[in-house]
Amino acid sequence: MTESSVVSFPDVDGVAASGLSPIAVRVVAKAREELDPQQLKGLSRGALARQVKEITEREVAAAGNSLNLLQQRDLVTEIVNELFVEPPSRVKPGAAPGAVSRGPSTQSGKTEPVKETAYSPKPSGPVPSPERTDAEVSASRAKSKASVEEAALRVRPILMERIDPAAAAQLTRKELARQIAEVVVELLQEESIQLNQIEQRDLVTTLVNDMLGLGPLEQILSDEKVTDIMVNGPNQVYIERGGKLTLTDIAFRDNAHLMSIASRIVTRIGRRVDETSPMVDARLEDGSRVNIIIPPLAIDGASISIRKFAKKKITLDIMAQQKNISEAMATVFKIAARCQLNILISGGTGSGKTTLLNAFSRMIDQGERVVTIEDAAELQLQQPHVVRLETRPANLEGDGEVTIRDLVKNALRMRPDRIILGECRGSEAVDMLQAMNTGHEGSMSTIHANNPRESLTRLENMFGMAGMNMPIGAVRTQIASALDLIVQVSRMRDGIRRITHVTEVVGIEGDTITSQDLFTYEYEGEDRDGMLLGTFKPSGLRPQFTEKAAYFGLDRPLIEAI
Questions:
Q1: At 44, is the pLDDT very low, low, confident or very high (cuts 50, 70, 90)?
Q2: How far apart are CA 426 and CA 404, in angstroms?
Q3: What pairing do the DSSP bridges indicate for beta strands 485-491 and 343-347?
Q4: d(Cα 357, Cα 345) in Å, to the nearest integer?
Q5: Most CB atoms within 10 A, among 96, 153, 242, 377?
Q6: What does the alpha-carbon distance between residue 541 and residue 516 come to, in Å, rounded to a whole number?
Q7: Are 532 and 317 in contact (CB under 8 A)?
Q8: Going by DSSP bridges, is the β-strand pair 303-307/289-293 parallel, antiparallel, or unpaired?
Q9: Numbers of helices and strands, H then E, in the chain
């Protein structure tokens, strides 16, 4: 039920404490007024549900609301469960249309008849529960989880025999879950497995996640506080939350289960992972980046690394509020992006390079044509005129590979105003720098390096990867004329990502690239909670791109920020 469907129902004294939704509270109170428990003792659940349905429809209409069939069915079930206790029974109707076959057959091939069972009333009013310690609650949860996992192992093979893959592919996740839930109740009774309603719901969720989602990973993918997921074989899953790594209690059934999930991830974007292609970059439907490496390269089982795509859009202003940067740095970054400076973002793995690149890209003018190039598309630009390009691995015969460098060369023929390269790590750096030098101002990229000076050295080395036999002076001249700004980002030991250097590339003197720091982060200590204390200190130097900022009418705020 959605919140909009229950918002106008008032609370009812003495019943609301049971934890029901307001709409159910009202109908329960009305049902207790109109229904005589003595007359209902001999009714089947179906007959009882029909009477509750009539009251529900009347009360919903009286409140001026409306419910669809699914919401109505769920509400009636909720109310019947509140009013009456259902003893275990073996309800086995014949096969129902849908993705899942209902009701097991006996050895003679005949379906057992349905047995209607009477229901006895529950005592009215909330039932008090004794206080439990945290240890008892944890133990109860662990026991419940173990029960669900054991039930899944026994129920799953039987359920899979009744699945019609063609029909299941046509159903929505909600409809498939509904059909599976109906059959799971029967299977639990057949196997004499006792689960409460919450455990049954968790079991259905587990089964649906295995069929349509990413299995055990679904529960942490939905947690917005988790930024990274690292699977090291079937029995070890780490997550990063708040910049800190934590070992979870999540596990896969075995290596085959883990491989099944890995294959499901890559096949969605037309890639494969097998012994001939044991390493692959992919993405999830929400844009999260995935890297998969499998045996024989991964000795302890398949390894899956997921960099989750944040649903919350991170802007430069938000980064300033989070103390990732200072207000003055945010102003300089906005001006740099508006003035079409060529920007290189440098940092280590997981330092936030792509997040910062996304934040920079939000300052690109709406009228510009932007081409993004990535191994696995994860950039989320908000401009209307964006062309997203993605590499392609070779096929089984070793043909058809499309590299980053191929895409950069092709992008130059697409009349881009800006080119955004997800990451420079090889010979494509040559083509990117040439593009920056030939009129594609405002282009951006990221690179793995520990400081701005090291990022320049890495770019020099990438020229050698391209097989270009150029004098070192010519290479450095090319780099110095292409780049305007290097932004160094670092994930520090308190888990917070901060900009440690904002370095402007000034030019070249002899064979040396000259630069100047506009901002640096100075560490001062840490507080009682272990959070680092420091200052984003401006250098006070006049940026060389001040004249370019003046062309855009932004020189005064630039000087004030520095």
A1: low
A2: 9
A3: parallel
A4: 7
A5: 377
A6: 8
A7: no
A8: antiparallel
A9: 19, 17
| Amino acid at the residue 79 | I
CB 183 within 8 A of CB 95: no
Q: What is the helix (H) or strand (E) element at residue 46, kind and residue range?
A: helix 45-62
- pLDDT at site 96: 43
60, 67 Cβ separation under 8 angstroms? yes
Q: Is residue 21 helix, strand or coil?
A: coil
- Out of 72-81, 238-247, 264-273, the most confident range is 238-247
Assigned CATH topology for domain 217-307: Beta-Lactamase (3.30.450)
d(CA 76, CA 305): 43
Contact 324, 496 (CB under 8 A): yes
Cα–Cα distance for residue pair 403/465, rounded to 1 Å: 14
Strand partners, 514: 507
| Cα four-point dihedral sign 265, 270, 276, 279 | negative
User: Is residue 49 scored above 60 in pLDDT?
Assistant: yes
Closest CA to 292 of 313, 322, 269: 269
First-to-last alpha carbon distance for the chain, in angstroms, is 53
Residue 426's pLDDT is 83
The CATH number of the structural domain formed by 316-561 is 3.40.50.300
Q: Write out pLDDT tens, residues 383-413.
A: 888 999 988 877 777 778 888 888 988 988 8
Of the pLDDT bands very low, low, confident and very high (cuts 50, 70, 90), residue 111 is very low
Half-sphere exposure of 402 (CA within 13 A, CB side): 13
- Residues of CATH 3.30.450.370 domain(s) within the chain? 217-307
Between CA 260 and CA 175 the distance in angstroms is 23
Query: Which amino acid is located at 454 in the chain?
Result: E
pLDDT > 50? residue 466: yes
What is the distance between the alpha carbons of residues 482 and 501, in angstroms, rounded to a whole number? Answer: 19
In this prediction, what percent of the chain has a pLDDT beyond 90?
A: 20
Mean pLDDT of 229-257: 88
Phi, psi of 517, deg, nearest 5:
-80, 125
Q: In what order do the strands lie in the sheet with 289-293?
A: 244-247, 237-241, 226-232, 303-307, 289-293, 279-283
Q: What is the rounded average pLDDT of the residues 153-174?
A: 73
Greatest CA separation for the chain: 100
Ranges for all domains in the chain classified under CATH 3.40.50.300: 316-561
Q: How confident is the model at residue 101 (pLDDT cuts 50, 70, 90)?
A: low
Residues 6+ apart with CB under 8 A from 55: 27, 30, 31, 34
